[in-house]
Description:
Distance between the termini: 19 Å
Shape: globular
Radius of gyration: 13 Å
Strand content: under 5%
Largest sheet: none
Number of strands: 0
Bound molecules: iron/sulfur cluster, zinc ion
Number of helices: 4
Helix content: 55-70%
Amino acid sequence: xxxxxxxxxxxxxxxxxxxxxxxxxxxxxxxxxxxxxxxxxxxxxxxxxxxxxxxxxxxxxxxxxxxxxxxxxxxxxxxxxxxxxxxxxxxxxxxxxxxxxxxxxxxxxx
Length: 110
Ligand code: SF4
Ligand SMILES: [Zn+2]
């Protein structure tokens, strides 16, 4: 796996885990995401695919571009606010890696 795909794959795993946790606790879904969260997850995947930074991607929360539509941004912020502090207990490795990714500086793909 290339550095490009590893970085994005990690981000996908982290956001997917956060949305699952949020949907499970807030919407009572355990096996499948609710319609609203499934649509958010589809949207996140599309943004990651088209991210201008690729392997040099900062976390979306620290991004200078913020490519999300305002409504989606509000939605993902609610997920992050809820799931962020709970991730350390549920997914410690992903949580720690996410914190490390937060120290990265954004650099556009060349
Ligand atoms: S918000 Fe920034 S880092 Fe996140 S996908 Fe969009 S451009 Fe990339
Ligand atoms: Zn949900």
